[in-house]
Amino acid sequence: MRAPIGTFDDVRPAPDCLDLLTDPVAAAVRAWTGAVPADQLLYVDTDPDVADTAVFIEHYGPRLLDESANCVIVAGKRGETTTLAACVVRSATRIDVNGVVRKELGSRKVRFAPMETATGDTGMEYGGITPIGLPADWPVLVDATVVDTPWVLIGSGRRRGKLIVPGKAFAELPGAVVLEGLGVEV
Fold this sequence. Notes:
This protein is an alpha+beta fold. It contains six helices and eleven strands. It has a single domain (11-185), classed as YbaK protein. The protein has helices at 23-30, 53-60, 64-67, 97-105, 115-122, 144-147; strands spanning 11-13, 42-44, 69-78, 81-90, 93-95, 109-112, 140-143, 151-155, 162-166, 176-179, 183-185. A five-stranded mixed beta sheet has the order 6-3-4-7-10. The protein has a four-stranded antiparallel beta sheet with strand order 1-2-9-8, with no helix packed on it. A two-stranded antiparallel ribbon has the order 5-11. It is globular and about 50 Å long.
């Protein structure tokens, strides 16, 4: 099988390699429903030593910068209430935390969640967090440009391996809210 984007040697439908995914991601792939069939979620094996975006892009293909997305966990606070949410933006952009995210969450203050919270509450590894398999009650804020991208490279729950997913599938994730301007050009 050949990947629709990037230069990956090992490409398989994600349902065929659940043992390579973290438990929450594997469970989400097993239970996958929606317009995009589960076998269109592709797993690509990658070197965990080149997991950081800039090195990854250099290694697996320069076009991936426009075809990959980051999933970042944020914590919005209003009074004593803290809301954890995921933000999914193209890798070439940054998240509008103090504008779009703060407004959408109704929070007075939003910050990036501490690594221990992001990994502990998701069951995923730092550097591999994906919106697929997050707690069902979390908002998943997705930049509209991600949904409009034909194929998107995103984490797999581990630093080793990534998922390639049709962009439109992000709009169907539990808790998904598609927002214009969530990702701001850097």
